[in-house]
């Protein structure tokens, strides 16, 4: 089968023929992949930015961790009735052996391995995954929209971390797919949402088409000038991964407000901590969502399929991966989705 692999600890990736995975291991299933999205993480891995060195041991490894598919085979200890189930998969697998796992706190597992990072992922027709990581899709939820579940759980966790509440005014920094998803979920939670981009016309336009009106592009207007009349914000959620934007946006957060960081930053951010102290503000990090969030997000996706599809800017075949990565890198794309073995 064709697979998109990281083969060397240096920039780039390879599309190559690899053997199909055989019988799934105990407790695992074999899934025929329908759709798989390119994530910011995949871009970092492709470009080989710092922080992914530990992947070296797994190479060559097939990338892809945001996906949907159908269970084709079950391993020992997995009910055969799972065969044929439409699923999406939590990509973070736990070891089941470490002290944290054995004491029932698998969330703190010290031996986590990511599907599509430390073990074979879904940029291929077939992928293996633990049965316990699979979430069945609700009836009526299409495979392409279901593949957006993983990034949307990241968005849901950010909105929860920021304690977004009805009637609040929220600033979302960065209009990539994660920022867009946060904007949708914060609006669904009853908040008024402002989204800030930097030379982000296509992605802000996608939000405008979904009814967002308070959109700021710092290509057209100076950040301070744009945000001052809209401030103070009850919460700021940063999903751009641009360190300087943390300091630039903090002054527009209200006293006792929460600044939530979701972006992956290439460098430390320099911030005025004394101003933060005097305003009694908090900075929080937000990352992976707990399993219970997945079913809530699947329900949201089922209720908002047309909306979610408008955030998929590219539906392409795996063979066109180079174009897909280029689009994802360019800020033209919101989400690039590979359709495996079925026409886009
Ligand atoms: Zn991802
Ligand atoms: Zn563990």
From TrEMBL:
Entry keyword set: Metal-binding, Oxidoreductase, Zinc
GO molecular function: oxidoreductase activity, acting on the CH-OH group of donors, NAD or NADP as acceptor; zinc ion binding
Cofactor(s) the record lists: Zn(2+)
Organism domain of life: Bacteria
Domain Enoyl reductase (ER) span(s) in chain numbering: 6-338
A UniProt-annotated Pfam family: ADH_zinc_N
Entry-linked Gene3D superfamilies: Medium-chain alcohol dehydrogenases, catalytic domain, NAD(P)-binding Rossmann-like Domain
Family statement: Belongs to the zinc-containing alcohol dehydrogenase family.
Record PANTHER family: L-THREONINE 3-DEHYDROGENASE
Name of the featured protein: Alcohol dehydrogenase
Organism: Aureimonas flava
